[in-house]
Amino acid sequence: MKRIGMLTSGGDCQSLNATMRGVAKTLYNLIEDVEIIGFDEGYRGLIYNDYRIMRPRDFSGILTQGGTILGTSRQPFKLMRVPDENGLDKVEAMKKTYNRLKLDCLVVLGGNGSQKTANLLSQEGLNVIGLPKTIDNDLWGTDMTFGFQSAVNLATNVIDCIHTTAASHGRVFIVEVMGHKVGWLTLHAGIAGGADIILIPEIPYDIHSVSEAIRKRAKLGKRFSIIAVAEGAISKEDAMLSKKEYKKKLEERKAKYPSVAYEIGAQIQEMTGQEIRVTVPGHMQRGGSPCPYDRVLSTRLGAAAGNMIINNEFGYLVGVKNNQITKVPLSDVAGKLKMVSPDDSIIQEAKSVGISFGD
Ligand code: F6P
């Protein structure tokens, strides 16, 4: 008899259910006696002993269903060692739940912070397997995270829709895409949507260069421009600030503008005299059904995790490298972000076709 715990942690995405289904179907299919325990709302359920015993039919019909049937919550890694308001030691509480339920393994579907906690639990002696979730695709140790391609599709669709109205009205449009620290989503949606300017956190922008790129297009007779901006895009000036100074700057900005796209919009309007509009699709980018690519990736990752459980291989994040499913030690993954490098060939290729990064 194998008893497997499962939880979905951090921001949700479209392909969490598809991934859990991959794990569950593999286990039900390949071994006789298995019980899957689903923890409610991520690590919260593991800490506070909130769980339900899943049945095979819980995993049927969820391949195409976005969100997570288990619910999720953000339980910051940095607070894991800090007792809760009632003095509860969260790490000890999680170990206690795991041991009391006599689990053979805990499967954690989560992004960066969640995998740090997964590594912590693994180092505390629990059998843990991580699965790479995030629309940001910023998890180190895997070429691709599930959720990313679905979010790219959604953000691209927004840019496509904006394109037609921008062309009709001859306006400059800014589309703000999710991604506070990394720009993979903005970069891919920007290229796929034919954005003229792409601004991402990894390549600080000069607002004069951005304005110049718009003027240049106008001079060429182009009536509109599309700018894809990551929510964490940062100017060259701000990139020079210390962490504390930048935090203060963000606080000040909040009083004037809802987000970076509005600030950039106001600056460009003043510099170019062009009419600017801002669109922020926000959490829509995490919603809806997983795209076919994600359904396949999730099924493959889930199946690999199921097989690893059967083979007693623990302490790994299941990822994908060059289209092959891989396993990377959680200790290698924890705390590392996979960022866009200005030297990546995709940046050079985008520049070749005339996309400006405002640098
Ligand atoms: O980590 C995924 C992500 O969607 C980011 O791109 C975004 O900045 C953040 O989550 C939003 O988080 P929340 O759900 O807490 O608003």
Q: What does this protein structure show overall?
A:
By secondary structure, the chain is an alpha/beta fold. It has two domains: 2-147 and 290-333, Rossmann fold, CATH 3.40.50; 151-286, Rossmann fold. It contains 13 helices and eleven strands. The strands form two sheets. The protein has a seven-stranded mixed beta sheet with strand order 3-2-1-4-5-10-11, with helices on both faces. A four-stranded parallel beta sheet has the order 7-8-6-9, with helices on both faces. The chain is elongated, with a radius of gyration of 22 Å. The model has no long low-confidence stretch (mean pLDDT 97). The structure holds 6-O-phosphono-beta-D-fructofuranose. The site of 6-O-phosphono-beta-D-fructofuranose (F6P) has 10 residues, from loops.
What is shown here, in short?
The chain contains 13 helices and eleven strands. By secondary structure, it is an alpha/beta fold.
